[in-house]
Amino acid sequence: GSNVLRMSSGIQIKPKTAVQKSKTSSPLPCSPEPAIKPQPKPSDKLNPKTIDPFGAHSRPPSAFAAVYAKGGIPCRLVHGSVKHRLQWECLPETVPFDPLLVTLAEGLGETKHPYTFVSKEGFKELLMVEGATEKAVPLLPRLVPVLKTALAHSDDEVFGRGLDALVQLSAVVGPSLNDHLKHLLTNLSRRLMDKKFREKITVALQKLEQYGGKVS
């Protein structure tokens, strides 16, 4: 009887060891498959559309936001305890006005931070560099339609930034802007009916007349 038990126990043990060996050895031929299957996944990451076609980064809200996201605006917002400021990656004097000044003007129509600050301050500081007049005048045919869009915007802050930019541009280019004013006065006259902008627009018109000379 003991021999039978030994034999039966031996028979029972041998299949188990065989199964254990097969279990430990079976993943070896299958191991390349898991390595092959995940490979297409990294390629999916290279195409943002396969991840989220409706994501915020797949459709930039404007040309300015797209250029800014790609690092095409050579300045960045620096947060201060009291006041924010711009930090330029290179001297503004060395930056080509074409197309940066036009791009910054397009950014005036933004309503999100930091685009609002970067576009407004960048446009202002770029016009303050030496030789700005000669660089800005040839761009007027492209700048005026962009400023007109900002002045026609329903958002009050966008309109305010557009008005400030117009006065800043007028101070730099002077009478060269006179021929383009007719395209902007309609939008200004509409807002003139709004009490909260009446004084601001009146002052702006006086400055445009001052910078433009008698012809304006």
UniProtKB/TrEMBL annotation:
Organism: Cochlearius cochlearius
Polar residues composition-biased segments: 1-11, 19-28
Descriptive protein name: PACRL protein
Sequence segments annotated as region (Disordered): 1-57
Gene: Pacrgl
Pfam family, one: ParcG
Start-end of Pro residues biased regions: 29-41
Gene3D superfamilies xref list: Leucine-rich Repeat Variant
InterPro entries, A to Z: ARM-like, ARM-type_fold, Parkin_co-regulated_protein
